[in-house]
Every structure is written in structure tokens, then in C-alpha cells.
Amino acid sequence: MKRIILSFLLSCFIFSIQAADTIYVKQTRVPVLIDRLDNVLFYIRIDAQNSKILDEIRLRFTGNTNLNEIASLKLYYGGTEAPERLGDIHYAPVQYISSHNIQGNTREAIPSYSIKVNEKQPLSGEVVFKPVYSLFPGINYFWISLQMKPNTSLLSTVEVDFVSVKLDGKQAPVTRQDKPAIHRMGIGVRHAGDDGAAAYRIPGLATSNDGSLLAVYDIRYNNSVDLQEYIDVGLSRSTDKGQSWEEMRIPLRFGEYGGLPKAQNGVGDPAILVDTKSGTIWIIALWTHGMGNRRAWHNSQSGMKINETGQLVLTKSTDDGKTWSDPINITQQVKDPSWKLLLQGPGRGITMQDGILVFPIQFIDSTSVPFAGIMYSKDSGETWQIHNPARSNTTEAQVAETAPGVLMLNMRDNRGGSRAVSITKDLGRTWTEHPSSRKALPEPVCMGSLLQVDAKDNILNKDILLFSNPNSTKERNKITIKISLDGGISFPDEYQLLLDEDHGWGYSCLTMIDRETVGIIYESSVAHMTFQAIRLTDIIPSPG
């Protein structure tokens, strides 16, 4: 009899072990877009070797989460796994929400990839899903979506814990593949398919003297490829610190100029500059005419004429970005005829303390070697000059004035691995390498953003240098804002904030919204042009 009882107890024990299928849970670290109906909050993977039913999922909101801003939480079923991927841990069979769907379905779950199982509006800090959902034998994928209300503040955050799961009526073991995350809000200023364009790329961002936010970018109508293509320069304007954005304007377009098709008159890679002395706003871009729809980087040639080489053009606004002038071609002023191509460093330019306007530039010389440098104007943009480049084999750069008359140029370096940094005290006549060059800032060969903010202009009351880029040496992911308190010598880990862990095109641009808040527009994993507002004290906590 004892033997029978022991055998029965042992079989029950073995069955309980077999029934304890492990749940793998991964919390996302990507922007929560207020304008999206679905945002992936958690990925859930269940290897149903013995379990038959998903009975319950329990979540708990914590921290400073404002439940009144949450429209709903949704539980979706994403199906099962392909045999060829078995053996590795994945969290989804496909991308549940597309950021690149040119049909315009970028703001909600793709219906054919997910089944909505439950939807809840959190009325208290705890949310319980009771799906009673039959499991496919083997790997099963679920995910939890977060939808915010349209009036949610950009500065709001959501914190939520994954508490427990029940399978076949029993608590199941949960393996977490993440760390607790603060979910930050964002706005998809431009999505694939908006206004009929396939893609939006190359962001620039500035704050006008009136406090308006002005975002510029490429409108890439046909596809996502670089010039030469059908591309115009677009602009989005916000007068409420990025909470909402006006309809898109088009400051620069050339249409069918010279009898050539629109795709052989593309203009793009913009940078924006606010003249803080006069209030005039400038946009600079590259216009390409008659290159047979091949890449301008390889097909622009030595010379000065529009049918030989890319043209450097400006437009200006004197009414806070509402209207823009006809194009102003300054190629003859600044380009060396032997260079094959001259264009701006996309992103933003600056006004120096003495009123000099500065744009970063890049050019390809007669031997096809690229260089980065600056161009400047001492007469409020009427005329422009270029002296010497900062470094060879560098391209997209951003500039900051780190001390009166001292300019730092932070450059994309084709050598890979890290950013190149140089200093000039004479507007580019001579350059010296900065101690941080090729050391302090990892990069996967991509554009980055640089922003100097004086102590009197920020809540930290310290001179700070902000930088953003994909914080990686290989891939365009992990978009991160970093702060240096020592003039760019170092960007300590504790002064860094990860915004988006997933993959996008990776370009970004920073501006100060007010003394307390930095704004960033970037090519994120969730929208082509994503805007976020970040408190400086979320990157460097205030003392006390």
C-alpha cells in the first residue's frame, strides 16, 4: 500500500513538473506614441509542452503612471513559431505593428498578424486579463498593447510590472528577459504613407526665438533611397512644445525644373538654423539636377553648373517658419570647382555668441575623398565662406560653440567605431583634434546630433553638451541621449538615457524646448519621424 501511495505521489510530482511550462516575458524600451492605437508593451512567449489553456495574465501599474491618460490595454495572440527558428529564443514571429507600411497602416496592429483576445481600461493599479485561450502545441506568442488618450502629456511616463500568469488554472513560472523600464511618450510627427509619401528621412530640429519648434526632413515620395530621387524638403511646426504639430509645409521643392522629371530635381538632406539675433530662420539643402536617378554621392561631378554638380541652396523665413522664400543658390560662393560634391551636414546649424551663423558641411574632393568642415556668414546670411576641412574620410557633422569663438565639430567617421571630433578657434582656418575624438562616442557610422547649452539656459545650472545617436558600434539601434559636464571629454554612463532599443534608420536632432526640457526628433523604430520631450533631470537628477 505504501508503495502504491509513493508511486501515486511521485507521478503527481512528475506531472506538476511537466505541467510547469515556462513563460518568457520581455518588456519593450521603445517610445509609446500618443497617436498610435497600439504600442507594444510586453512580448510573451509560452512553450506549451504540457499546458493547454492560458487562463490569466496579471499586471500592476506603478510609479508616476497617470491611469486617466491610458485609453486601454489589449492582449493579442500572435500565433506560433516556424520550425526553422526553433532552438533560439524569439519573442515574436513577425513585426506586429509596421513603421514602414506605405499603405498608411502604421498606427495600429496589423490585423492579419494578431488576434485581439482581451481589452481592458485600467480603472485601478492592477489589470487582470482572463483570456481562457487554447494554446497551440509548442511555441505560442502573445503581446500586450498600450493605447494612450490623445490628450496625454508628452512628459508623462508609464511604469508597469508583469505580475503573474496562470496556465491550466495554475501559477506558471515566469522568466523575465528585461529590466524594469520607464515607458516615455512620443509623437509620430511623420509616418510612412503620410501625405502619400513612402518615407520621411533626415531630421533637423530648432527652436525659434518665439519658442516654436521647427522640424525639417526629406519627403521621399517613391521610396526611402537617397538623392537623386523624387524628394522635397518638408517642415512641421509646433507652437505648444511638441504636443501637436501643424500640417506639413514644403519650404524647398524644384518640381520639373529645366524640363526634367521631378525625380531628377530632388532636394534634401536639410539642416535648419535660427538666427538668434534677427529671428530669421534658414534651411539649407542639396539640390540635384539631371543625374539620371542615380545616387548623387557617386554621380555629382567636378564643376559648378547645375548639370555638372549638386547645388547648395538656402531658403529663409522671417515669420517664425510660416512662409519661406524662393531658393537661394549659394554654390558659386562656397564650392571649390574641383570638388565633386558640396552639401551641408544635415541636422542643424548655430548662431555664435557674436552673431556669426554657422552650418556644418561635407564635401567630396577631386580624388573622391570626403571631408567634413563648416561654412559661416558674418552678414546675417547674405554671404557665406568656407576655409579648410577638419578631417578626411568624414561626412555628416554637427557643430557647437563650446566657449566664445571656439567651435567643436562632431563628425561621422567612415573608419567606423566612434565619432571624430575637432576644434577650431578661427572659423575653420585651422583645426586641432579634440581629446575625445575616436574614443568617447561609439557609432555604427551614422549621423548624430550635438547641442551646447550654457548654464544660464538650463535647469541644471551647468554648462552641458548633449549628444544623441545610435549607441552602438555595429547597428542603428539603441538611440540614446548623453550629457557631458566636461566639455565633451566624457559622457558617463549615468548621464545617458536610452530612448529606443530597436532598429530604425538612426538619424536624430536635438533642441532645447525650454530651460527644463530637451526635444529630439529621430528616425525611430516606431515612426519615420518621432518626437520626444525629455526632462534634463531625467538624464541628470538634480542634487537633493
Molecular structure report:
Helix content is 5%, strand content 43%. It starts with a helix and ends in a 9-residue tail after the last strand. With 544 residues, it is mainly beta. Strands 2, 4, 7, 8, 10, 11, 13, 39, 40 and 41 form a 10-stranded mixed β-sheet that branches. The longest helix is centred in the first third of the chain and has 18 residues, at 2-19.
Radius of gyration, Cα only, in angstroms? 26 Å
The fraction of residues in strands falls at 35-45%
Overall strand count: 41
End-to-end Cα distance, whole Å, is 69 Å
Low-confidence stretches: 4-19
Number of helices: 3
In percent, how helical is the residue content?
A: under 10%
Largest sheet: 10 strands, mixed
Determine the mean pLDDT. 95
How would you describe the shape?
A: globular
Structural class: mainly beta
Brief summary of the model shown:
The chain is mainly beta and 544 residues long. It has three helices and 41 strands. Strands 2, 4, 7, 8, 10, 11, 13, 39, 40 and 41 form a ten-stranded mixed beta sheet that branches. The protein has a six-stranded mixed beta sheet with strand order 6-5-9-3-1-12, with no helix packed on it.
Characteristic key phrases:
ten-stranded mixed beta sheet, mainly beta, six-stranded mixed beta sheet, 544 residues, 41 strands
Strand and helix layout:
Layout: H1 2-19, E1 23-27, E2 32-33, E3 40-48, E4 53-62, E5 70-79, E6 115-120, E7 126-129, E8 133-134, E9 138-148, E10 157-167, E11 170-171, E12 174-176, E13 183-190, E14 199-207, E15 213-220, E16 231-238, E17 249-252, E18 267-274, E19 281-287, H2 296-299, E20 311-317, E21 328-329, H3 331-334, E22 341-344, E23 347-348, E24 350-351, E25 357-364, E26 370-377, E27 385-386, E28 391-392, E29 394-403, E30 406-413, E31 417-418, E32 420-424, E33 432-433, E34 442-443, E35 449-453, E36 464-470, E37 479-484, E38 496-500, E39 508-514, E40 517-522, E41 529-535
Parallel strand pairs: 1-12, 2-13, 18-23
Antiparallel strand pairs: 1-3, 3-9, 4-7, 4-8, 4-10, 5-6, 5-9, 10-11, 10-13, 13-41, 14-15, 15-16, 16-17, 18-19, 19-20, 20-21, 22-25, 24-25, 25-26, 26-27, 26-28, 29-30, 30-32, 31-34, 32-33, 35-36, 36-37, 37-38, 39-40, 40-41
